[in-house]
Specification:
The structure holds two protein chains of two kinds.
Chain A: H1 2-19, H2 22-26, E1 27-28, E2 32-39, E3 47-48, H3 50-58, E4 71-74, H4 80-90, H5 94-106, E5 115-116, H6 120-129, E6 133-138, E7 147-151, E8 164-166
Parallel strand pairs in A: 3-7, 4-5, 4-6
Antiparallel strand pairs in A: 1-2, 2-6, 2-7, 2-8
Chain B: H1 2-16, H2 19-22, H3 26-55, H4 68-71, E1 81-94, E2 102-115, E3 120-130, E4 136-150, E5 153-161, H5 167-170, E6 199-208, E7 216-223, E8 247-254, E9 262-273, E10 281-294, E11 297-310, E12 316-327, E13 333-343, E14 356-369, E15 372-383, E16 389-399
Antiparallel strand pairs in B: 1-2, 1-16, 2-3, 3-4, 4-5, 5-6, 6-7, 7-8, 8-9, 9-10, 10-11, 11-12, 12-13, 13-14, 14-15, 15-16
The chains are: A alpha/beta, B mainly beta.
């Protein structure tokens, strides 16, 4: 009984690791994981400066160079990855961002705010389906249905890439439903 | 993860619920392990197939078309109307003669916007407020259809907030947005004897100017202008213009990339006024502003030269400005200070009756909740040939 139970535990552990095996590979040194900026694969843009990214997320720029309307998709308030994007890209707190979005609608500069989706899977699907969409997700959550762009000339795996979040502990899987 | 957990649970249960296997011979153990491994492989294959089906939608290639989601037409049932409410409740007291401290219902502002298509949207603003006789009135403060085919061209038609200076378009009726309890005197609404035409009925065009990191923007507006023939007339000419002359306003703004939160701008507004019995007056309103919002700091500075040139007699210029500084602490408390100045020469046919108004305001805004704030403010207003007025205001401002 004890022998079989021990072997069973090994199988369980191996199964868990096997099904969540992407995260450790994408994690960077120092317990950090890159936060990828993702766009629709049809979007010709490959690189944005951090200030252009800020304009896109804050509505200062509402069209891509090809004329497509920029549609920002974000995770809900309270999400850690969103807080990192607000701090590093928008340079705002959550409260400041919500006030900014409301005021942009109020002044007529922008209609509505970013689309909010609960899961990385939802973000992937949205970006896949909407040609002008832009969003973010952990590099381990990216697949080939969407395109990762460079920020200030650096890709998520390049040294010096600025958009990083704390890596999730090995064996844990995002509550995102990814 | 839930699928993985289910697999683990299935295996564990299989082990626990088969006590006979624990007591079997080694051959039976091996058989059991092989059965379990086979089962795990089957389940893994099923999970992979399910995940692939979820992640890879079966739609046409991404670039195929603009989707309803992108156009903001949720569910394909036509445009949706989004409504935000702004309101404030106040207690006001001054030491001015014949006034009494009063609880005051502020404005109830219903702001509406709707996306009609990828390029077209509507904004509207309906405000209910009581007058000095305690009688409520409902005003359509804004109704504008906007067509925005690119970042460089945004055309709005209807009633809008005139882009004179900064404060008017940034805050307007949304009391919750602004740090202080009230607007600077310069930007008081027309029906509160404010000197500027803060609303316009006509066409407004704005957009980016290709200027790289300088971040230049333009605004050009043409409207009916402000009524001038009778002081009793509704100041905003919503339906009928008193003359064929239109009011024009142009503005140039800079929002440099290197200074996030900084904006500087210039604007010039021109109109022809025809106050009863005083002949024609050419009005030119020049404005400049430098503002900064960032790191919890708010700096607002605006200066004006308000010039009225009658057909008979020389032009008269009224200088005016205000400066406001506020700093937020702990994302809750924002002490602020404002000084404002408006000095109309008595010979000015339009603003002469206002004369001099200047003085400081000192206040504290405390954000009780993300969308509700309590403000307290002290004002001291000096006017020509009268004693200074001290005022105290408390305000609960919120959005919903």
């Amino acid at each position: 009984m004890r022998r079989i139970a021990g072997f069973g535990s090994t199988i369980v552990l191996a199964t868990i690791l096997g099904l969540s095996g992407q995260a450790p590979a994408a994690a960077q040194a120092g317990g950090q994981e890159a936060l990828a900026i993702v766009v629709n694969r049809a979007n010709p843009i490959n690189d944005l400066s951090i200030s252009d990214l800020r304009k896109a997320f804050l509505g200062g720029q509402q069209r891509w160079a090809n004329g497509r309307k920029i549609t920002v998709v974000m995770r809900p308030a309270g999400d850690g990855d969103r807080a990192v994007v607000l701090r590093l890209v928008c340079r705002m707190t959550e409260a400041e961002f919500q006030k900014y979005v409301l005021q942009a609608a109020f002044t007529g500069e922008a209609t509505g705010g970013p689309r909010v989706l609960d899961t990385a899977l939802g973000v992937r699907r949205f970006v896949f389906n909407v040609p002008g969409a832009i969003g973010y997700m952990r590099l381990s959550e990216v697949d080939d249905t969407i395109k990762v762009i460079h920020v200030d000339g650096l890709g998520p795996t390049d040294p010096g890439y600025r958009l990083t979040v704390a890596a999730r502990p090995p064996g844990t899987v995002s509550a995102s439903g990814s | 993860m839930p699928v993985t957990a289910r697999i683990a649970l299935a295996i564990a249960l299989a082990i626990v619920l088969r006590p006979a296997a624990a007591q079997a011979q080694a051959a039976d153990d091996r058989q059991l392990i092989q059965d379990l491994l086979a089962r795990v492989q089957t389940l893994e294959a099923e999970v992979k197939a399910l995940k692939d089906a979820q992640v890879r939608p079966a739609e046409a290639p991404p670039a195929a078309s603009t989707t309803p989601t992108e156009m903001g037409l949720g569910g394909g049932a036509g445009p949706t109307l989004e409504i935000h409410g702004f309101a404030d409740l106040d207690y006001l007291h001054t030491d001015q003669a014949l006034t009494h401290g009063s609880f005051t219902l502020g404005q109830l502002d219903l702001f509406m916007n709707s996306t009609l298509s990828d390029n077209t949207s509507v904004v509207g603003e309906l405000v209910t407020e009581a007058d000095d006789e305690n009688v409520f009135h409902v005003d359509l403060e804004r109704l504008m259809l906007q067509f925005k085919p690119s970042d460089f061209l945004n055309i709005g038609v209807g009633r809008y907030h005139t882009a004179i200076g900064y404060y008017n378009t940034a805050y307007h009726h949304g009391t919750w947005f602004q740090t202080a309890t009230g607007r600077p005197f310069l930007f008081q609404f027309e029906d509160d004897d404010g000197p500027l035409p803060v609303h316009g009925v006509g066409v407004t065009v704005n957009g980016r100017i290709p200027s790289g990191r300088l971040g230049l923007r333009y605004v050009a507006e043409v409207s009916n202008g402000r009524a001038s023939r009778s002081p009793l007339a509704e100041p905003v000419q919503n339906v009928v213009d008193e003359n064929n002359g239109k009011a024009f306003n142009v503005a140039l703004l800079a929002q440099p990339d290197a200074l996030s939160g900084f904006q500087a701008g210039l604007s010039m507004y021109r109109d022809r006024l025809e106050p009863g019995g005083l002949g024609r007056i050419q009005q030119t309103l020049l404005a400049a502003h430098v503002v900064y919002h960032g790191h919890g700091l708010e700096l607002l500075n605006e200066g004006f030269a308000l010039r009225n040139a009658p057909a008979l007699g020389g032009p008269v210029t009224t200088p005016a400005f205000y400066s406001q500084v506020g700093k937020q602490f702990a994302q809750k408390a924002t002490p602020y200070f404002r000084y404002q100045y408006f000095n109309a020469p008595q010979r000015d046919l339009i603003f002469g009756g206002i004369g001099l108004r200047k003085g400081p305001s000192l206040g504290l805004r405390y954000d009780l909740e993300p969308f509700a704030a309590l403000k307290v403010q002290y004002d001291r207003t000096l006017q020509r040939d009268t004693v200074p007025i001290n005022g105290f205001a408390t305000q609960l401002a919120f959005t919903f």
